[in-house]
Amino acid sequence: NAGVTQTPKFQVLKTGQSMTLQCAQDMNHEYMSWYRQDPGMGLRLIHYSVGAGITDQGEVPNGYNVSRSTTEDFPLRLLSAAPSQTSVYFCASTQLQGNSYEQYFGPGTRLTVT
Amino acid sequence: GQSLEQPSEVTAVEGAIVQINCTYQTSGFYGLSWYQQHDGGAPTFLSYNALDGLEETGRFSSFLSRSDSYGYLLLQELQMKDSASYFCAAIYNQGGKLIFGQGTELSVKP
């Protein structure tokens, strides 16, 4: 049981490049989310998914795309990287049933755009 | 909007009790959760409240009052290792959407 895995751990991109951040969970959780965290700030929701085939925008979706073809995987695509997207990206998976709540974060991807 | 408010920093001494407050927007609100984050690490889940009242998990407790749109995290018997950032996060849309506060930096002094 690996929990939530993210790859890569570190990435440097040039402005205008595209890339995909990978996220996978093996807990059969329904909900998955992507966040970005800038220095000294809270986590801001980029996109989230409530199940395979269903995604929705969060607080800061511009410049990012997601898809959820399986329960396990929730990749985040940067379409054309910009320096403003330099941040730490966290993926999370969540199971929520009534009063029972379970959430785990991946270790994060540290992205620098030059 | 769905913003949350929490104090930016709190300082306390070892062995003391500290309370971190959080207010949230009510539209679509489902529950309130709390997280701890040490420098450079991923957030870790601490506590969750779906109903009004107190939830206790060891030294950490969390409280929710839906009528006041307010919750708090209570940390007892503070230890140096509790120095970290603490985030409240409100769950909306029946669990699909989680919005975080800006975080409270807790410093525990000897």
Question: Could you characterize the architecture of this molecule?
Answer:
The complex is a heterodimer of chains A (114) and B (110). Chain A has no helices and eleven strands. Chain A has strands at 4-7, 10-13, 19-25, 31-37, 43-51, 54-57, 64-66, 76-78, 87-97, 100-105, 109-113. In chain A, strands 2, 4, 5, 6, 9, 10 and 11 form a seven-stranded mixed beta sheet that branches. Chain A has a four-stranded antiparallel beta sheet with strand order 1-3-8-7, with no helix packed on it. Chain A starts with a strand and ends with a strand. With 110 residues, chain B is an all-beta fold. In chain B, the strands form two sheets. In chain B, strands 2, 4, 5, 9, 10 and 11 form a six-stranded mixed beta sheet that branches. Chain B has a five-stranded antiparallel beta sheet with strand order 1-3-8-7-6, with no helix packed on it. In chain B, a hairpin with a 2-residue loop joins strand 6 (53-57) and strand 7 (60-65). The N and C termini of chain B lie far apart (40 Å). At the A-B interface, strand 4, strand 5, strand 9 and strand 10 of A face strand 4, strand 5, strand 9 and strand 10 of B.
